[in-house]
Design brief:
The complex is a heterodimer of chains A (189) and B (297). With 189 residues, chain A is α+β, with helices and mostly antiparallel strands. Chain A has helices spanning 2-8, 23-35, 52-73, 96-115, 158-168, and strands at residues 37-47, 76-81, 87-92, 119-128, 131-138, 143-147. The longest helix of chain B has 41 residues, at 185-225. The chains are: A alpha+beta (189), B mainly alpha (297).
Chain lengths: 189, 297
């Protein structure tokens, strides 16, 4: 099929893969126990909004869910727009399991509102000895990869990232293609 | 006592022993053929011994000369000397001499007939590209070659291959200019083909052995530095893999819609047989496993 699509120049929106997000809830334990990586309690979903009207509706539902979530599990939800024009749903919860569950639920809600193929990435923020690092989940690839910012400016600590990959392989569905380890700069977490 | 994380890799050891055994069997068969042919091949063996002996004894000077490496003093390259000293202390070997090759190609090698006469050389391209931790990984790999006495092992492993090669050449020229003794012709043919077979098979066996020695040196490097990721990061950098990790923002790329690219085809299996070094994937996989075992401890 791929060959035919290429031959005829057809492209379809790639479906988002949501369920592999759950791998983070078990991986977080390994990160904490074996590597001393602490969850910052903050995570975000980044997506490209389509039209304002439909989006407002979805956001309204998310806010409602947020209200319910806050009462049930203490997950706080806020919204932001970044400099690229992408929308962020920022979640806060000290319990990583709740955080992951909420991430999944929100992704599902966004998908139901037709934003499925607009989902770009889910980001989990961790701390390693006070240094922030991120696990980025690419919805379209259904895979995680690390982002360890280094110093000032848009620099990455590649060795640290590769080390994280080698240690978490088998626990997290890992993005195998290094060329797709695109960073996100200025993550609002 | 619990097994250490860098404890020997059984599979690698078995493979190495198997290759050495095959090589020994091949050489013994070769000796048997030479013996049964009733020809006096003592001269050829002697020449091979002298040739390889010289190559072995002068390996440091020979290799440095052929690579265009220049020995550098402590004052010329204090940081490099410092790293080599520290790592050889950790590896418990005498500090080797240090040499530098002026080329932008990132590379490193070690030579010398024994740890006392060893030289570790790096290229300027390597120094420019790697940070100090990665350089430590590469230096530790080279020091492992020294510690494992790889020059001696490989010289020994290729001894009868050299004999076979010499015989082949000798037979060839003998066949062209000689041919005076008709009765010896059959024996000559036999030796020629035996040499050919030995030379070809040993070529592949020696290359396999070389690949296993490289993997062993990678393990050795991990044991010395205690940080397998330093070497993997260096290997990735040298091979250009780390340049693959983008720094461009995902949102910019997404906006460009340049997201769906066909995966590149991977290399073929045949080239593996001819190479003296294991593939990057194999080396990284081993280092990765060491890293995992280390963390799990």
């Amino acid at each position: 099929m791929k060959f035919l699509d290429a031959l005829l120049g057809r492209s379809k929106p790639v479906r988002s893969e949501l369920d592999r997000l759950f791998a983070m809830s078990t991986a977080a334990l390994t990160l904490k126990v074996n590597l001393g990586l602490e969850s910052s309690g903050r995570a975000g979903i980044c997506f490209r909004p389509l039209t304002a009207g439909r989006f407002a509706e979805a956001e309204e539902e998310l806010r409602r869910m947020g209200g319910i979530g806050e009462r049930a599990t203490n997950t706080r939800i806020t919204f932001q727009t970044d400099e690229h024009g992408f929308r962020w749903v920022v979640l806060e919860d000290p319990e990583i399991e709740d955080l992951v569950a909420a991430m999944h639920m929100i992704s599902l809600t966004l998908e139901e509102h037709g934003f499925g193929d607009r989902l770009l990435a889910a980001v989990f923020k961790f701390f390693e000895k006070g240094r922030p690092l991120f696990w980025i989940y690419n919805y379209k690839r259904g895979a995680f990869y690390p982002l360890v910012p280094a110093g000032e400016g848009q620099q990455r600590d590649n060795p640290a990232e590769l080390r994280l990959r080698s240690l978490l392989e088998g626990e997290l569905p890992m993005e195998a293609d290094l060329e797709r380890w695109y960073p996100l700069w200025g993550i609002p977490l | 006592m619990a097994k250490h994380w860098y404890a020997e890799d059984k599979q690698l050891t078995v493979r190495m022993l198997l290759v050495m055994f095959l090589l020994a069997a091949l050489y013994l068969g070769f000796i048997a053929v030479l013996w049964s042919s009733g020809m006096n091949i003592g001269g050829v063996v002697l020449i091979a011994a002298v040739l390889l002996g010289l190559q072995y004894y002068y390996s440091d000077r020979l290799v440095l000369w052929s690579m265009g490496a220049r020995e550098v003093s402590r004052s010329e390259a204090p940081a490099l000397h410092g790293s080599v000293e520290r790592l050889s202390a950790l590896a418990d070997i005498p500090t080797p001499r240090v040499a530098l090759v002026r080329t932008s190609v990132p590379n490193a090698f070690a030579t010398g007939r024994n740890p006392k006469a060893a030289v570790v050389a790096v290229t300027t391209g390597l120094l420019e590209r790697l940070n100090s931790a990665e350089l430590d990984g590469v230096l530790a790999h080279e020091l492992s070659h020294v510690r494992h006495r790889d020059v001696a092992v490989m010289t020994l492993a290729s001894f009868f291959a050299t004999v076979a090669q010499l015989l082949m050449r000798w037979m060839f020229w003998g066949g062209v200019y000689g041919g005076r003794r008709r009765e010896g012709a059959a024996a000559m043919m036999l030796i020629y083909f035996a040499s050919l077979v030995v030379w070809v098979i040993s070529f592949f066996l020696i290359r396999a052995l070389s690949r296993y020695r490289e993997l062993a040196a990678d393990r050795g490097a991990a044991a010395i530095t205690g940080a397998p990721s330093q070497l993997s990061s260096a290997l990735l950098k040298i091979s250009g893999t780390i340049q693959k990790i983008p720094t461009r923002d995902l949102r910019e790329v997404e906006a460009m819609n340049a997201f769906f690219i066909f995966p590149a085809l991977s290399g073929d299996a045949l080239s593996k047989l001819f190479s003296t070094h294991p593939s990057l994937e194999v080396r990284l996989a081993q280092l990765k496993e060491l890293e995992q075992r280390m963390e799990r401890r």
